[in-house]
Amino acid sequence: MALDLCGQLCKVILIIFNIVFALLGAAMLGLGLWLRFGAxxxxxxxxxxxxxxxxxGVMVLIxxxxxxxxxxxxxxxxxxxxxxxxxxxxxVFLSIVCGLVxxxxxxxxxxxxxxxxxxxxxxxxxxxxxxxxxxxPSMMVTLTVMQNWFQCCGLVGALDVLVKKTCPEHSFTGFxxxxxxxxxxxxxxxxxxxxxxxxFLGTAALLLLALGCSSQLRKEIKRSRTPxxxxxxxxxxxxxxxxxHPYEDPVVFPPLTLATSADV
Length: 264
Fold this sequence. Notes:
Helix content is 65%, strand content 0%. By secondary structure, the protein is mainly α.
């Protein structure tokens, strides 16, 4: 028995979701490994408290990217091959990731000032390393991603010509109004903490949607593989021995006697 319409829809949603999820995880893992083992960045991972925010940020990228990639592999394999075991593993991993996302959102909301300052220090470290290495490609990618995400530019705004090619595109007025990145990052986490929490919770809602589709697809796969009960069909021409009804009294006939000549 094939999957019904609901099962097919959940299967398509999971395949698309996990393809996007795999691309995101691969990008995060690749960037983290690039920053960790790049020739110009290995020295930052020595015991140096001035770069601890950078080290923590890179390790988070590597671990989170690897976890996301593993979850996506389980999900895609389970959906494409209709494997209940792989879908179960996908659901377990996805539940853990969803819990981590919600926890990170709550922490970012409660300790918004501290989180903003740590992110600003991470940016400053990347900025300084970008200038010291003469435009290292990994640093350039990291700066570009962060500046486009926070819509900021350098340490003095759009007037910062040292990182001009990594800044987001802006209009003529934006040349004077685009803020510097460290204060913009701190203000985002401090003044817009509910928005940051909403982003985390929105991400968790998407993960829960995928989790629900996984559960529904597992049920549909189990139903489609359950054999239908067999029924015995009796032909109308089958001769069955007739038995008296248990509540029906048998008919008793009196014994027959032969008449004699004396009785006549």
